[in-house]
Amino acid sequence: MKKLKPWQIVLLVIFYPVGIVYLIVWLCNRNKKPVSVSATPSRAVVRDFNTKVVGVTFGNADGSSRQEIIKACKPGDDIIFKPVPTAEYPDAIGVFNKRGQQLGHLGADLAADLKTNYPNNHMSVTINDITGGGDKNYGCNLHIVIYSI
What we know:
CATH architecture of the largest domain: 2-Layer Sandwich
CATH class of the largest domain: Alpha Beta
Oligomer: single chain
Helix content: 25-40%
Number of strands: 6
Strand content: 25-35%
Radius of gyration: 25 Å
Number of helices: 3
Structural class: alpha+beta
Shape: elongated
CATH topology of the largest domain: Alpha-Beta Plaits
Order of helices and strands: HEHEEEHEE
């Protein structure tokens, strides 16, 4: 066996334990789930409910099919609300996936309620269920949690 030089021994003594500690920390943390930034455990839940998306059979302005977009979605996907007012529905709220594709709208009564009663509240919105398929049109049910301000 070859004799190690003093500088090699120093490096071995320093880096060998550091490598073992790093390996242990990595093994302990590899199965931990990251904390969601959108989670708001410090805020109280004001309202927690399910609703369905309306207008799912219409086409989008860009020519894309809402039915095809909903077909590609799955429960748990995050949803974004964006105001899309029209002359007939000034409080209209569009339902969009994270890729910016429109799935439909919220019902007129719910949209007016959200804009009136919860204009500044943080909300968590996810897909609860995809319905239909086969010979029926696809539908989309949402789970909405509204937090206190």
